[in-house]
Specification:
With 451 residues, the chain is α+β, with helices and mostly antiparallel strands. The chain has helices at residues 13-31, 45-71, 76-90, 106-114, 127-138, 206-221, 258-262, 275-281, 327-330, 367-373, 427-443, and strands at residues 95-97, 119-121, 163-169, 176-179, 194-198, 200-205, 236-237, 242-244, 249-251, 287-293, 302-303, 306-314, 316-322, 332-344, 347-360, 383-387, 392-395, 400-406, 414-422.
């Protein structure tokens, strides 16, 4: 999902004040030396020594646990051991369900969503459903096999071929961190200014979009010796903010309920609500979004503050998932922002914006470089899961994720539908706020921890 994080509502003033007070008092007690109180004459000195040593032992044990959770260990073997221990202690296990009658096991799945743990249901939707969506969306054709009892196509089906909103970039990275003078451009070998860049949004007929996606897929397939999801050396750096790209990348990814707005004909085949979502979240989805692209487009690492049910109709989505407690490893930071703008065919410039955006600074696609700049990232171990045609992924709110994709078969395209349900701002929200604050205090040096 290449997405811009919705702004999360802040806690109330009293909640924030209490949280700040609690964290600072706890941190202070952990980082400052314990006083050695003088015993009253009526009390025993040895008793004070015992209590003092006992308290120091408890504090040291707590510090060790915090350091272990935040810093991990220094070797791959120890990292794996830590991950296993975290899985066991926190109950994190990616469940993959291979057979799922939709009216059965609902209580089990509700318990899973309440734990904020991802799961995958294989073949949640049928092969026939995938085929209907493919016919209706991938090729922009009328689904002549679906008619009303009157024998006439619905008005929604007749709306095919309308204008759709598409994210366009010169490197396949929409809503992502970009280094202006980084060696990604092929001419510089040092780290430059970093920006969070939005894509340029263009409006075009479905037929034009499909033609562009086919050209894009052919370009990626012909890039010899390059990973399909590696944008290194793709851009030619002409000046500080001007670039040339050999190919423009198109991706349907607007998270504004675009399925109902741009692809209403899809409602012939896609439910506007899922029984699973209604049962687990006790609410209706705030948005239904369609995602359509090809090989060569990848999201950057981020998190969303929605409960997400994600169904793939064509191709394969590859998810890297990081639990919320790994937030200190992922270096969420505030960046200056801008957007890509195509000023001539395949000639691009960065247009700056007067705003800031918080995003993950790390790049899982280039771990060696990332670890040199952000050493704690070496301790972030992701869950990896592939979601294929008909599969449903439950992606819990506040889980960090990066998504790449690959096509299957002659269509060359990857298509998915997702449902966003409101996040419940309960203890989970405050837990995440606490983790963020702890990470901030450690990274700024207010709390000492070894990497």
């Amino acid at each position: 999902t290449m997405t811009h994080n919705p702004k999360i509502p802040p806690p109330s003033f009293k909640q924030k004040e209490h949280l700040e007070s609690l964290l600072h008092s706890t941190i202070s007690s952990l980082t400052s030396e314990l006083p050695n109180p003088k015993p009253a004459s009526s009390q025993n000195t040895s008793s004070y020594r015992f209590q003092d040593e006992e308290m120091k032992g408890k504090v040291q044990s707590l510090m060790d646990k915090i350091a272990e959770m935040k810093a991990g260990s220094d070797s791959t073997k120890k990292d794996n051991t830590l991950q296993k221990r975290q899985n066991e202690s926190l109950g994190i296990e990616m469940r993959q369900i291979t057979q799922f009658p939709k009216s059965v096991h609902r209580q089990f799945l509700k318990e899973m969503t309440q734990k904020n743990v991802p799961f995958v249901i294989r073949r949640y939707e049928s092969v026939a459903w995938c085929e209907k969506v493919r016919r209706a969306v991938l090729r922009g054709e009328k689904d002549k096999g679906v008619q009303h009892e009157s024998g006439e196509d619905s008005a929604a089906t007749q709306q095919q071929g309308g204008m759709v909103t598409v994210a366009v970039t010169p490197n396949g990275r929409a809503d992502a961190i970009f280094e202006e003078n980084h060696d990604e451009c092929g001419t510089q070998q040092h780290t430059g200014t970093k920006y969070f860049l939005y894509p340029e949004e263009k409006h075009m007929p479905v037929e034009e979009l499909l033609k562009n996606l086919e050209l894009q897929s052919d370009f990626v397939s012909n890039r010899e010796g390059s990973s399909i999801n590696d944008s290194s050396s793709l851009l030619t750096h002409n000046s500080d903010t001007n670039f040339t790209s050999p190919c423009n990348f198109f991706y349907v990814q607007t998270q504004n309920d675009n399925l109902r707005k741009d692809f209403p004909h899809l409602l012939e085949h896609v439910d506007e609500d899922l029984e699973l979502g209604e049962y687990c979240f006790e609410d209706v989805p705030e948005a239904m979004n369609l995602w359509m692209g090809t090989d060569g487009t990848t999201s950057s690492l981020h998190r969303d503050f929605y409960e997400n049910l994600y169904i793939v109709a064509e191709g394969v989505k590859e998810f890297l998932l990081y639990p919320p407690f790994m937030q200190p490893y992922l270096y969420e930071q505030s960046f200056d922002t801008g957007e890509w703008k195509e000023v001539a065919p395949q000639q691009w410039k960065i247009v700056k914006r007067e705003e800031q955006n918080v995003w993950c600074a790390v790049d899982p696609e280039h771990p060696a470089k990332t670890v040199r700049e952000y050493p704690w990232f070496a301790k972030a171990t992701p869950f990896r899961v592939e979601v294929g045609p008909g599969d449903l992924l439950y992606l819990p709110s506040t889980w960090f994720h990066q998504v790449s994709q690959r096509s299957l078969g002659p269509s060359k395209l990857v298509v998915a539908v997702n449902y966003w349900y409101p996040m419940l701002f309960e203890s989970r929200f405050h837990y995440n706020q606490m983790i963020e604050k702890m990470g901030e205090l450690i990274q700024t040096g207010e709390v000492k921890a070894e990497i």
